[in-house]
Amino acid sequence: MLKFDNGPGMMAGASGRHDQIVVNLISGLRTRLRGGPCHVKSADQAARMNCGNIRFPDVTIDCGERRPDSYESVEPTVVFEVLSPSTRGSDLLRKADEYRALPSLRHIVVLEQARAEAQVWTRTDDGDWPPPEPIEGLTRNLALPRVGVSLTMAETYEDVEPVV
């Protein structure tokens, strides 16, 4: 079981846009990962950072062994964060730095909720993290070659009302 040294904390719920993007990601990824070594996890599963922090990415692809009684990912391989106004700075700076330090991680995906736009960081074979690839528009693909998965931005943002 996970133990938190800083006591219980409160987290706000997600907006409808944020939640729909997460649902779309989980749905699309589950279909594509079925039968393979990797599986998709929701924000209820923790990712333990090398620095000791516990993070709860919006969506995680875990390519480690399945442990049904565990409360955390075994081998987080891809993490997805849907940006919210209250967590934007943390997601893009502090969390991204902690994620990049995880040896098992291959991709970090940060998605806007107000428009069909994402940034995808991909770890190279030598362990470097070049600048993220920007992906904009519903006609683009959200490609994750290090796990052999691709989603269309149209399905990722299906039923998401744009901010006008």
Distance between the termini: 43 Å
**Low-confidence parts lasting 5 or more residues at pLDDT below 50?**
1-10
Q: Give average pLDDT, whole number.
A: 89
CATH architecture annotation:
Alpha-Beta Complex
Q: State the oligomer.
A: single chain
- Helix-residue proportion: 10-25%
What's the story with the biggest beta sheet?
6 strands, mixed
CATH topology: tt1808, chain A
Helix run count: 3
Please name the fourth-level CATH homologous superfamily: tt1808, chain A
Number of self-contained structural domains: 1
Strand residue content: 25-35%
CATH class: Alpha Beta
Characterize the overall form: globular
The secondary structure category is alpha+beta
Give the SSE order as H and E letters: HEEEEEHEEEEEH
Instruction: Report the radius of gyration as a whole number of Å.
Output: 15 Å
Q: Largest beta sheet: what is the strand line-up?
A: 1-4-5-6-7-8
